[in-house]
Amino acid sequence: MQLVILSFTFDVYNFVFYFFIIDLIRNYIYNIIVLSLITPKNNIMSKKTSRRIAKKASKALKSKNTSKKTKSVSATVLSQSKNNKKTSKAIASKASQILKDGRFGKCAKSIAGSALSQKK
User: Fold this and answer.
1) Residue 109 contacts residue 99 (beta carbons within 8 Å)
2) Which residue has the higher pLDDT, 113 or 6?
3) Residue that wins the pLDDT comparison between 98 and 119
């Protein structure tokens, strides 16, 4: 008699376990389908400039001591803080030069890094 009861409880636990697994798989597939339908294709990998970098770019544009390269890269980065624009090749080249040059400070290099991370 005890074997029958143990066998029955084991079967119930197996049923609950398999039902749980099937439900997890069903929810996972459902989420993939729904998210692929809802998420716009062109905004999946879009980037915007963070507030911290936008503040640095704003300060760089206002400063009289900032180089022309840094100002042009800062203007681009600042324009990317509100929309999903991408960095042009010319600005990316200037940003790359800023990162390679040891004469530029941390602020200019962080702005340049942000510009390069949003390159086409």
Assistant:
1) yes
2) 113
3) 98
